[in-house]
Design a protein that fits this description.
Elements: E1 2-3, H1 20-25, H2 41-46, E2 53-54, E3 68-76, H3 80-91, E4 97-102, H4 103-110, H5 114-123, E5 127-135, H6 140-157, E6 162-163, E7 165-166, E8 169-170, H7 172-179, E9 193-201, H8 206-217, E10 222-228, E11 233-242, H9 247-266, H10 277-285, H11 290-300
Antiparallel strand pairs: 1-2, 3-5, 3-6, 4-5, 4-10, 7-8, 9-11, 10-11
Helix pairs in contact: 4-5, 8-9, 9-10
């Protein structure tokens, strides 16, 4: 990475002497982001929106292709039991990936036409937890079997059911879509376009943000909740679909999205990626952080060359 001072810096495994070509010839693989020593500038850079430095290359660690995969849907009338189940799955390290989606959101993933999306949403439970199971080459059947058995028992304890399909759609179809994603944004399928309000929170608090959105928008909001960091927190996304051919809908939707973002911020939603108007809103919630960020800016970009006006650097 290149800081605003013009200094070139490498993090983690790449922070050793020699050129990149020399590293590759020596068989070096970049596996650690933190460093050198106790520094962790990557975390500082990731949320800076280009105000501290420029990243011109990165190494990404990819998971091996699994030898065996399975997937399950778990439906419920509210998000609360699914949030509890998700937390327990992460505590036990069961499953490779998971998310919770409302019926409208999941229908927009599985179908492409507005009418078919509406029909499918009416057949699905109000909320669905998707769980993906993977196993490497060593005893893959055994690993999948014990994880499925644990999930079945956990669901039985809370009167839920883990099913390989819902409303005639296989859970494994999600895995296939991840491997071969569609060209367009699936969130636009509901009405033609969308605005998203997204932030971080705790899984057990997601229900209050959903209620807040439903109070303002009724059923015309698609909901997606993604556990992060082994369930320590979650990404909450509220999707507001609208018809882009209608100027009235476009204007009204923009206003609703901004109002909803402010309401979620007041309710405790953490806007970790505060772009545009969200930046003022986010920093207004925690003004004490501004002097520290400005001091950081003075270290990495003292002449304010990079992306002026972003975040609180105005």
């Amino acid at each position: 990475m290149v800081f605003g001072t013009g200094d070139v810096f490498r993090t983690g495994s790449a922070a050793i002497s020699g050129t990149l070509d020399e590293h590759w010839k020596a068989g070096l693989r970049y596996l650690t982001a933190m460093g050198p020593a106790g520094t962790d500038f990557l975390r500082v850079m990731q949320g800076s929106q280009g105000t501290l430095g420029i990243l011109n290359w990165a190494a990404i660690l990819c998971e091996r292709v699994p030898a065996l995969e399975e997937a399950r849907f778990v439906g419920a009338d509210s998000i609360a039991p699914l949030a509890h189940l998700s937390a327990e799955l992460h505590r036990r390290r069961i499953g490779m990936a998971s998310f919770i989606a409302s019926n409208l959101h999941l229908a927009s993933v599985l179908e492409s036409e507005p009418d078919r999306i509406a029909d499918l949403a009416a057949q699905l439970p109000a909320f669905v937890l998707y769980i993906q199971f993977t196993a490497a080459c060593d005893f893959p059947q055994d690993k999948i079997a014990y994880q499925l058995a644990d999930v079945t028992q956990l669901c039985a304890d809370t009167r839920l059911v883990a099913s390989p399909d819902l409303a005639g759609y296989s859970a494994s179809q999600i895995t296939q879509l991840q491997a071969h994603p569609p060209a367009g944004n699936y969130k636009d399928r509901i009405a033609g376009a969308h605005r998203s309000v997204f932030f971080l929170s705790q899984m057990d608090r997601a229900e209050q943000f959903i209620a807040l959105a439903r109070e303002r928008l009724g059923a015309n909001v698609a909901i997606y909740v993604q556990p992060r960091l082994h369930g320590r927190n979650c990404h909450v996304e509220l999707v507001l679909p609208f018809d882009p051919a209608s100027p009235q809908q476009t204007s009204a939707n923009d206003a609703l999205a901004d109002q909803l973002a402010k309401a979620c911020s007041v309710a405790g939603g953490f806007f970790s990626r505060p772009y545009g108007a969200w930046a003022d809103m986010a920093f207004a919630r925690n003004p004490t952080i501004k002097p520290f960020l400005r001091e950081t800016k003075s270290i990495f970009d003292p002449d304010h060359i990079l992306n002026p006006g972003r975040l609180c650097f105005k």
